[in-house]
Amino acid sequence: MKNLKPSHKEKKRYLEIKGKDATRTNIENSVLEFIGVLGYTEAGITFIDSKKDYLIMAVNRESLDKIRASFLMSGKDIKIFRVSGSLNKVM
């Protein structure tokens, strides 16, 4: 199978998320509640790393503002600590 050209690949942003309620299920529920199933799939959310104090996830670049808004509207303690285009800078 032929590889994709770099211009056809999905551009990701990596988020470092901290907070008392920053668990995978809380994040999924808040995003699904705000932007729905279609928006969730367009965002292309993938969870990379999960530790006790933080969680790292990858999001499509165009839907970063929707993800931020869903965390604000959820009313839970979920904060985006850092956003980067490189995974090494976030970790």
Would you give an account of this structure?
This protein is an alpha+beta fold. It has one domain (11-85): Ribonuclease P, Pop5 subunit (Alpha-Beta Plaits), CATH 3.30.70.3250. The protein is built from 3 helices and 4 strands; from the N terminus they run E-H-E-E-H-E-H. Helix 1 packs antiparallel against helix 2 (64-74). The radius of gyration is 13 Å and the shape is globular. The termini are far apart. The model has no long low-confidence stretch (mean pLDDT 90).
Give a nutshell description of this structure.
The chain has 91 residues and is of the alpha+beta class.
Q: What is the CATH topology descriptor?
A: Alpha-Beta Plaits
Helical residues, percent? 25-40%
Largest sheet: 4 strands, antiparallel
Number of domain units: 1
Structural class: alpha+beta
Distance between the termini: 32 Å
The top level CATH class name:
Alpha Beta
Shape: globular
Features:
91 residues; alpha+beta; Alpha-Beta Plaits; four-stranded antiparallel β-sheet; 4 strands; 27% strand; globular
Topology, please?
Blueprint: E1 12-18, H1 24-43, E2 46-50, E3 54-60, H2 64-74, E4 79-84, H3 87-90
Antiparallel strand pairs: 1-3, 1-4, 2-3
